Amino acid sequence: MRLLAVMMGCAMAAGAASSDTVLIRDVDVYPVSGAAMKGVSVLIQDGKIADIAARIVAPKGARVVEAKGLRVYPGMIDSGTELGLSEISAVRESVDTGELGEFMPQLRALVAVNPESEHFPVVRVNGITSVMTFPASGGRGGGRFGGGEQQFISGQAALIHTDGWTWEEMEINRSAAMHLIFPSRGGRGGRGGGAPPDAVPEIIPGAAGAAGGANAQRTYLDQIAKISAFFDDARKYQKARTANAPGFHRDLKFEAMIPVLEGKMPVGVSASRASAIHDAIAFAEKQNIKIVILQPREIGKAGAELKAKNIPVILGRVLALPESEDDAYDQSFTLPREAYQAGVKFAFGTFNNEFVRNLPYQAATAVAFGLPYDEALRAVTLSPAEIWGVSDRLGSVEKGKVADLLVTDGDPLEIQTQVKHLYIKGKEIALTNKQTRLYEKYMNR
Amino acid sequence: MRRILLGALVALAPLSAATIVIQNGTIMTVSKGTVKGSVVVKDGKIAEVGEKVMMPQGATVIDAAGQYVIPGIIDCHSHIAADGGINEGSVSVSSMVDIRDVLNPEDIAIYRALAGGVTTANILHGSANAIGGCTLPIKMRWGKDAQGLIFEGATPGIKFALGENPKRAGNPQGRGINGQVQVARYPATRMGIDDTIREAFNEAKAYKAEWDEYQAKTARGEHPIPPRKDLKLEALKEVLEGKRYVHAHCYRADEILMLLRVADDYGFKIRTFQHVLEGYKVAKEIAAHGAGGSTFSDWWSYKVEAFDAIPYNAAIMQKYGVVVSLNSDDAELMRHLNSEAGKVMKYGGLSETEALAMVTLNPAKQLGIDNRVGSIEPGKDADLVIYDKFPLSDYAKVQKVLIDGTVYFDRDKEVSGRAAKQAEKQKLIDKEKQNQQRQQPTRRPGQ
User: Fold this and answer.
1) Are residues A443 and B319, on separate chains, in Cβ contact within 8 Å?
2) Complete domains list, chain B, with CATH
3) Are residues A379 and A236 part of one domain?
4) How many CB atoms are closer than 10 A to CB A189?
5) Residues of chain B positioned with their CB less than 8 A from the CB of A320
6) Is residue A422 domain-shared with residue A386, that is, in the same domain?
7) Is B284 on the interface with A (CB under 8 A)?
8) Do A343 and A424 fall within a single domain?
């Protein structure tokens, strides 16, 4: 029965032309920005939420969707993906995440986004209407198929819609963040999450451990110095550019750094351990730049500092193993609660294309382990919109905002909930993809 | 000091009680519907299940008001609790090796799986070769030794592997292990995998015939010279005799069909297809053979052979009559198979019971242990999980896990015991530091 309903829903959506004006009637609206409104109507016009009211007369030519018993939520935002850049993660030819070069701020993820990627229809039918797509999100710089060398700045992450004919149409912000992979004491990139706990060097017995620790520390400091030097050079360039000194040459790398230095583009800093977060904050203060911490595995001591400096974090996969053997089994499940209790602003990212569609379920796991429900829902809608500077347009169901909406039969963080209708920029999106097509084909073999 | 250590040991030992009554819970039995009531556990077995039960004298009572009780989760595909590598990839047929020999009872993944409601797991060899090593199911009896983990009396298995993984060694790329030069290992194609399995069973059949002849002669009272024992072929002979289950790693429909036909030709059965991401394309054929399908709920796109994977796979295979389970193949995914089961309700519209069966009774059937585990029925092992909320959801978390009627995981105790454990750890670290300072040798010149 449920199956039939799904299939009918699909057929209806597929049959619907992209209509500019849609009236969703008698629906419960969960705007995230405020209290729920039961049994109201939502009018979508020109890609925007034109009105939300108890009664709206359908404008001429509007398609009316009777939605009694259904709910409207804002489209969800995944704050860490490689969508559009990577199709089959094991096949180099289909992966464009990891470029060569240590400092590559001029690279833009947006221009390599493949709008025809099979991932977009797969993730959007679960209600994910926009994503941050990062260069080198999955590993350290150079990526899995890059040079395999340490990379510090991997390029500019783009905020995109999960629908559009071209990457230009998908774009929300092509330069939503600069991606900096902060060094870690383990000598590995912060993203890998594989750095040993800070305590390890001191408890490894014998001189080898201590020497190893000292070496790692030296490498770590050298790497931070290298990043600082690059920023200093960028700043010199900025001055020379302003002065328009004779002999000034345009440099694309430094040119790309200017919005960062001006505080207009945040830097997404991958940093796993509390100590690395602390150092990243110190670095940001020194350089006077805006940062967002990506994929921390620890909040701990860094919590107070993050709160005090108003630095947001993008929490990685909640459904992840603890960092080390001695860590509590639920370490990653309780991290969102910890961030919340520390008063840190946060959103969720899945940091792997395959898991983007499970973004809401990761948020649900955080709820099971103590994060208040409203905060979890906010962390996949309004909070990321705020963090990425687009809360005037996205993240909640409010009049005047972009009509990125889902109509569901229940709580979107609950696995069993079905998305019945989906709108991206006001366009009704067919709830079909490669997987539903194969399903229908082989169900009727 | 010794007293402190002893105290710690006692605290670590799982709470064992001869008789336990779990009461006021929503009991999802899987085989006999869902009831609000109690489960009585006696001598490690389920004694009674029902709305009203006889309260045995002196029973320990676990109040599960507002909570859910399900059978222990069974993961039909896991690689935890194995010490070091799980791939004997130097040969294309490694049926002479056995996971049983490398069980590591101290792998923390056992405890983590337990905390995710898993009580039994099928521990498999890797997928580096067409015919891999021998396998066996274990119970998550955290704290027992390797022998104590083994699921007593369960039919052992053997891992087969088809597709990209076993052919990879035929076309080696990159650096070899320990700097060794990588030499191409046959097979390099799916054709070669078909042949490798056929060649192995061709040999195994001849080997079995020698032994059959020997045994026939012995039975007639003759005294023939016994054939030479071949440990590689011994496991395959057991497959031919139906004494060892074949668990075949596979992805694409063509390779699934290939193995079915090899099995038909050599007269053996495939017990389960593992991963079987394109099982939905040949579900009729899998069902006709009587093989089970153990798949992921929604993993896809990580390699070419996973690009046609669909989250409806489990539902379609089930529709065609295949016994389907959901597995993890992963120490992390293993910790939330309950919500993975919830996904087959979303994708494919299965009922609660059908979904839950995919991580309990169905894998038990696939492993041939459904007489012991997989549902909440009198006489079965008291392997039970208590969740605070409806378990087929990420909102639910495990409160308690019982194996053989013994509480092996208790979230309240786990959380409340953390401070003491941290203090104990700190004490050990301090002691180690002191020892190091004491033992620091004085440096002599020239050293």
Assistant:
1) yes
2) 1-71+375-418 (2.30.40.10), 73-373 (3.20.20.140)
3) yes
4) 24
5) 332
6) no
7) yes
8) no
Tell me which chain B residues have a C-beta less than 8 angstroms from the C-beta of A319: 332-333, 335-336
Mutation site for A-interface testing, chosen from B394, B397, B436, B443 by largest number of A Cβ within 10 Å: B394
State how far the alpha carbon of A397 is from the alpha carbons of A51, A72, A145, B312, in Å: 10, 8, 40, 31
Residue A168 within any structural domain of the chain = yes
Are residue A291 and residue A369 in the same domain, yes or no? yes
Overall domain count for chain A: 2
What are A245's two structure tokens? 């000194």
Q: Model pTM?
A: 0.92
**A204 shares its domain with A272:** yes
Note the ipTM here: 0.92
A329 to B414: CB separation less than 8 angstroms, yes or no: yes
Domain span holding position A39 = 17-74+396-429
CATH of the domain at A403: 2.30.40.10
DSSP-derived secondary structure for A52-91: EES--PPPTTPEEEE-TT-EEEEPEEEEEE-TTTBSSTT-
Same domain, A142 and A170: yes
Burial call A68-87: b when 16+ CB within 10 Å, e when fewer: eebbbbbbbbbbbbbbbbbb
C-alpha radius of gyration, chain B, whole number: 24
Specify the residue for token string 């230095």.
Answer: A261
pLDDT digits (tens), chain B, 447 positions: 344 444 444 444 555 658 999 999 999 999 999 999 999 999 999 999 999 999 998 999 999 999 999 999 999 999 999 987 899 999 999 999 999 999 999 999 999 999 999 999 999 999 999 999 999 999 999 999 999 999 999 999 999 999 999 998 887 765 555 555 567 899 999 999 999 999 999 999 999 999 999 999 999 999 999 999 999 999 999 999 999 999 999 999 999 999 999 999 999 999 999 999 999 999 999 999 999 999 999 999 999 999 999 999 999 999 999 999 999 999 999 999 999 999 999 999 999 999 999 999 999 999 999 999 999 999 999 999 999 999 999 999 999 999 999 999 999 999 999 999 999 999 999 999 998 888 766 555 554
Same domain for A42 and A181?
Answer: no
